[in-house]
C-alpha cells in the first residue's frame, strides 16, 4: 500500500464494537513497534497488553476505554533513555511517539482502529499493573474495530494546515502572525482576528483576573465556580489547548481576539469536537467593563456565527452561560439566541456527556441558549 495513503487512512477512533483482535494481527502490530527506531537504539519501550475484562477495567479507572477489548499501555524505561548533553533533553517521549505511530499505522493496515491517549492518570496505571518506579507509563493505545467505521482519508484537506503554514526553508518564520495578518472576520462594530500563542496570557487574565471576572466566575456571586489556575485553563478535556491559538484543528475549535477601533477588547471562541455534527459551542468574554453593554460582544457573536455557518456548514450554535448572568443572556438573545430546554444528549456526543453535560455552572445553574440557521 502507498505509504501516504495509509497515513491518510489512519484516524482517531473513539468507539469500538468490542470484537476481539486476532492474535496474528496483534503480533503483526507489536512487531511493527519492535522495529521502530529509537535514540542510539536504546529501545526504551515496554508495552503491557491489556485484554482480559479485569485489565480493561483497571485502565478504565485512568481513562475511558471506548468499548475496546485490547489496550496497549506503552511505557518507557528511564534506564534506557538518551539524554542530550547540551540541554538535558530526554529522548524518551520522542522514542515512544515513534513506537506509537508504528503501532497505529500497522493497526490501520489490518483495518483496526486506534486512539492514542496521553491524558490519563499514570498513578492509577502504575498501581494497577505493578509498574516499578523506573518505568513510566507514557501513552495508552486503545485498539479495536470501529463501531461507526473509519473517517474519510480525504479529511486532511480541511483538517490539516497547508504545508506553507508548517514548513519553512532556510530560516524560521512566525506563521501564526502571517495568518493574523491575512485573515479577519469582520462585523459591524468589531473585527475578529485569529488568536496566536502569544495571546494566551492575555486571554487567561481577561477571563479570570480582570474587572469582568466577577460576572462569571469566583466569589462572591459564583463561589462554586472557582477560578482555575493557568495550567488548568489550558489543559484537560475542555481546556484551551494550543490548537485554539495556532489553527491546527479548525474543525475542533479556534479562538479569536475581538478588536474595536484598533484596540483588543476581548476573546471569542468556538468549540466543536464535543458536539454533534453541524453544531458548535461559542464562548466569549470582554477584558473591561468599559467594553460591555455597547453591543461589541453581540456583534462578535453574530460575526463568528455567520462565518461558521457559511464556511463550515454549522447549522446550530450553542451557548451555556450562568443562568443568573442576566447581562450575558441578554447579549446572546440580541445575537439571535433563544433559551432552550435542550438536554445534553441532544447536542453533545455521547462520549462527552459526562465531561460537558452539566455545563460550567452545574445542570441547575447553566442556561442553554441556541441559535439555529435551519430554515423550517
Question: Short summary of the structure?
Answer:
With 376 residues, this protein is of the alpha+beta class. The protein has helices at residues 3-9, 23-34, 53-60, 92-109, 122-128, 156-159, 163-166, 175-182, 200-208, 230-233, 243-246, 296-312, 326-334, 353-356, and strands at 45-50, 70-77, 113-117, 135-144, 185-186, 191-194, 253-260, 263-271, 279-286, 316-319, 338-339, 369-372.
Average predicted confidence as pLDDT: 91
| CATH architecture term of the largest domain | 3-Layer(aba) Sandwich
Uncertain segments are none
Radius of gyration: 23 Å
CATH H-level homologous superfamily name of the largest domain: Gcn5-related N-acetyltransferase (GNAT)
Description:
- By secondary structure, the chain is an alpha+beta fold.
- It folds into two domains: 3-153, NADH Oxidase, CATH 3.40.109.10; 168-372, Aminopeptidase, CATH 3.40.630.30.
- The chain contains 14 helices and twelve strands.
- The chain has helices at residues 3-9, 23-34, 53-60, 92-109, 122-128, 156-159, 163-166, 175-182, 200-208, 230-233, 243-246, 296-312, 326-334, 353-356; strands spanning 45-50, 70-77, 113-117, 135-144, 185-186, 191-194, 253-260, 263-271, 279-286, 316-319, 338-339, 369-372.
- An eight-stranded mixed β-sheet has the order 5-6-7-8-9-10-12-11, with helices on both faces. A four-stranded antiparallel β-sheet has the order 1-2-4-3, sandwiched between helices.
- Helix 2 (23-34) runs antiparallel to helix 4.
- The longest helix is centred in the N-terminal third of the chain and has 18 residues, at 92-109.
- The chain is globular and about 65 Å long.
- The model has no long low-confidence stretch (mean pLDDT 91).
Amino acid at each position: 500500500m502507498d505509504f501516504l495513503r495509509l497515513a491518510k487512512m489512519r484516524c482517531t477512533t473513539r468507539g469500538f464494537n468490542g470484537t476481539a483482535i486476532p492474535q496474528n494481527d496483534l503480533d503483526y502490530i507489536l512487531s511493527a513497534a519492535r522495529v521502530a527506531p529509537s535514540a542510539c537504539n536504546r529501545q526504551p519501550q515496554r508495552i503491557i497488553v491489556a485484554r482480559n475484562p479485569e485489565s480493561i477495567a483497571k485502565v478504565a479507572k485512568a481513562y475511558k476505554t471506548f468499548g475496546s477489548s485490547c489496550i496497549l499501555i506503552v511505557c518507557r524505561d528511564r534506564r534506557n533513555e538518551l539524554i542530550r548533553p547540551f540541554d538535558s533533553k530526554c529522548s524518551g517521549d520522542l522514542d515512544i511517539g515513534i513506537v506509537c505511530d508504528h503501532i497505529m499505522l500497522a493497526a490501520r493496515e489490518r483495518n483496526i482502529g486506534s486512539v492514542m491517549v496521553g491524558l490519563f492518570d499514570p498513578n492509577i496505571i502504575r498501581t494497577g499493573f505493578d509498574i516499578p518506579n523506573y518505568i513510566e507509563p507514557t501513552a495508552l493505545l486503545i485498539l479495536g474495530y470501529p463501531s461507526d467505521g473509519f473517517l474519510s482519508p480525504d479529511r486532511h484537506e480541511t483538517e490539516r494546515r497547508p504545508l506553507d503554514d508548517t514548513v519553512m526553508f532556510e530560516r524560521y518564520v512566525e506563521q501564526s502572525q502571517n495568518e493574523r495578518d491575512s485573515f479577519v472576520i469582520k462585523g459591524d462594530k468589531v473585527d475578529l482576528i485569529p488568536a496566536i500563542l502569544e495571546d494566551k496570557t492575555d486571554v487567561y487574565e481577561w477571563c479570570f483576573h480582570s474587572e469582568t471576572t466577577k460576572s462569571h466566575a469566583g466569589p462572591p456571586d459564583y463561589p462554586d465556580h472557582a477560578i482555575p489556575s493557568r495550567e488548568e485553563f489550558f489543559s484537560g478535556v475542555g481546556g484551551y489547548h494550543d490548537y485554539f491559538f495556532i489553527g491546527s484543528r479548525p474543525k475542533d475549535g479556534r479562538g479569536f481576539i475581538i478588536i474595536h477601533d484598533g484596540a483588543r477588547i476581548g476573546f471569542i471562541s468556538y468549540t466543536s469536537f464535543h458536539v454533534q455534527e453541524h453544531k458548535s459551542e461559542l464562548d466569549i468574554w470582554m477584558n473591561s467593563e468599559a467594553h460591555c453593554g455597547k453591543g461589541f460582544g453581540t456583534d462578535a457573536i453574530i460575526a463568528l456565527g455567520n462565518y461558521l455557518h457559511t464556511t463550515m456548514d454549522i447549522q446550530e450554535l450553542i451557548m451555556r452561560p450562568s443562568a443568573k448572568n442576566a447581562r450575558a443572556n441578554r447579549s446572546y438573545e440580541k445575537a439571535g439566541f433563544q433559551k432552550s430546554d435542550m438536554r445534553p444528549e441532544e447536542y453533545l456526543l455521547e462520549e462527552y456527556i459526562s465531561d460537558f453535560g452539566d455545563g460550567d455552572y452545574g445542570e441547575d445553574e447553566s442556561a442553554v441558549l441556541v441559535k439555529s440557521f435551519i430554515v423550517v
